Amino acid sequence: VIRKSSETIEEIREGMRGGDGLVIVRHLFRKEEFKANVRLCARLLLPPGASIGEHTHEAEDEVYIVIHGTGLLRDGSKETRVSPGDAILTGRGQSHAIRNDGTHDLELIAMIMCYA
Amino acid sequence: VIRKSSETIEEIREGMRGGDGLVIVRHLFRKEEFKANVRLCARLLLPPGASIGEHTHEAEDEVYIVIHGTGLLRDGSKETRVSPGDAILTGRGQSHAIRNDGTHDLELIAMIMCYA
After folding, report:
1. Do B61 and A2 touch (CB under 8 A)?
2. C-beta atoms of A113 and B84 within 8 A
3. Measured between beta carbons, which residues in chain A are less than 8 angstroms from residue B85?
């Protein structure tokens, strides 16, 4: 299944996971399109000032991969500046959060894989 | 776990899956770092002229997401020109291939999730 960028389903999330501003979620493939247990495969766009609040992942692993822009990524209690090519893996009850504290859009790939 | 771009493990594959030239595979997270059943999470760089040959995925789903550049993506018997933001999902015994027929590097995210 090829999904052109223009065919993605766009969802606008306000205060995502308790964060600030709007996050644009562009779903590349729906959960039902996978046979593997994947519940999210999306591009996330955080405009300047936007954030995804801190939240945990219990029975699933989430990967963020930074594509464009820079931001502040929280991995548990540790905060790191990230830029394109940087990634985070969160699961096993760990928490993460991300904030665009820059002046350009921050774009990520996000994928969530469930354990069972 | 935060993985900075500079910390990725780089692997150079020649004639990947029967394709042409070299493909640089930058592993973001190893299989062992996931609790979910993910066996590849990488950035792939195909210089101009490079390709990944046609191959099938039986008991796993693979997602490619184009990050930079353009190329020719084969989905079964169908060929489509792709550019940044375009994606492909391949599994259930389907096949795919990709070729950088342009003059700039083609960069993808690739993730493989096993069914069991």
Report:
1. no
2. no
3. 4-5, 8, 26, 43
Adjacent-strand bridge partners of A30: none
Q: What residues of B are in contact with residue A115 (Cβ under 8 Å)?
A: 35-36
Contacts of B60 in chain A (CB under 8 A): 36
Residues sharing a CB contact under 8 Å with residue A63, sequence separation 6 or more, in sequence order:
A87, A88, A89, A90, A109, A110, A111, A113, B28, B29, B41, B111
- B109: closest CA among A85, A81, A83, A27? A85
Among A5, A87, A91, the residue with its CB nearest the CB of B3 is: A87
pLDDT in tens, B39-65: 999 999 999 999 999 999 999 999 999
pLDDT in tens, A7-19: 999 999 999 999 9
Q: What is the ipTM of this complex?
A: 0.95
